[in-house]
Amino acid sequence: MIVMLSRQQHFDSSGTASSLIYTTALFATALMGLTGGALLRRISNRFIGVSTGLLSALIALVAIVHDSVAGNLTIVGLLFFVCALDNPNINATLNRLLPASSRASGFSTFHTINNAALIAAPIVAVSLVQLVGGAATLAVAALCFVVSAIPWLLLPKFVRVLPNGSPSPSHFEGYGEILRNTALRDLTISRLLNNLIYTAIPVALPILASRLTHSPSEFLWLQGASLATFRGGALASSLVAAFMFARRPYWTIYAARAATPLGIVCLLVLAITAEPLVVILATGFGGVGQFSFRLSGLTLGPSVTPPDLLGEVILAGDTVVRLYSSGYSYLVAMSFTVLGGPILLVAAALASVPAPFLIEKAVRAYRLQLAEPSTKEPDSVAA
């Protein structure tokens, strides 16, 4: 991503072309989601994991010889299209491996390890681009993709087996479950509202970085540092959550409710600041909120989803959210050009306010799954 952001900034110093990288990534992920449910039903988790790593490596190598605005967007689109099954595949695999009482701490531990790599990646990528250039950095990325395929060879192989006589789910079964299941539908609407915040942050960063810096090198470092602190906030949260939720898994409820106000604060600060350091600090704060947002979905979602449809529901939910977010992200990018300022960021913060109130059905289901009645909790979750 850093290499592509750098290339786009070379063609368009306003940061708009760079922000379209994120829009393209969301749209490509959503496209795979339209057909990926069939793959999740018919292909093992191991095959998906290994093939994703190898195909991503191939795309990174192809990117070395292509450099144009359209070419860079195409490469990003292909890469995220291939990687679109990664999230539902990993989540469904972890859900099969972890009992309900350990799910929150297990997901926290996984995301701690994952975020530790993600927080270092932008800084390492910026350093590599500065030292050896974009082509060599893409070659390193290709090697990393190959390495990412190896752990799947060591994990148990899962292929969903339906009971004898059970009909195979239709291609759109995940979407149907979201529409039928009121708790799941409300949780999805909450995701859409929260994505007004957590889509706007990375889309706005290249434009804000372009306005607050005076050279390509400064732009690259501010962009990289902001992404690193964004992921660093998530990493710090996951370290705390892995310890806390292992002992008190119902505390996930508090994290779920905190996701929206944390994001609102970050977005409002980004909308009014003119200082690069404040941008970096605010994105770190936003990373804390994003982790809470994602963890709440990973733990509350399975509580209101039939286990045999979890992969399809995750993919369907991701597809709906990302199709919506890809259009919205384009609107965010264009709003800076048309409106001349971050007015839409303020509007997004205000529009997301109802999100915490739409998760209550899922909260109740999760609490029942943990066999932790609200009367026995030290602090009322209704507070």
Please trace the helix and strand order, writing H or E for each element: HHHHHHHHHHHHHHHH
Q: Quick one: how many beta strands?
A: 0
Question: Judging from the principal axes of the Cα atoms, what is the shape?
Answer: globular
Tell me the CATH topology: Growth Hormone, Chain: A
Q: In whole angstroms, how far apart are the ends?
A: 41 Å
**What CATH first level would be assigned?**
Mainly Alpha
State which percent range the strand residues make up: under 5%
Global mean pLDDT: 80
Tell me the major beta sheet: none
**Which spans have pLDDT < 50 for at least 5 consecutive residues?**
161-167, 373-383
Proportion in helices: over 70%
CATH superfamily: MFS general substrate transporter like domains
Number of domains: 1
Q: Oligomeric status of the shown chains?
A: single chain
Q: What's the tally of helices?
A: 16
If you compute it from the alpha carbons, what radius of gyration comes out, rounded to the nearest whole angstrom?
20 Å
By CATH, the architecture is named: Up-down Bundle
State the secondary-structure class.
mainly alpha
Features:
16 helices; mainly alpha; 383 residues
The gist of it:
With 383 residues, this protein is mainly alpha-helical. The chain has 16 helices and no strands.
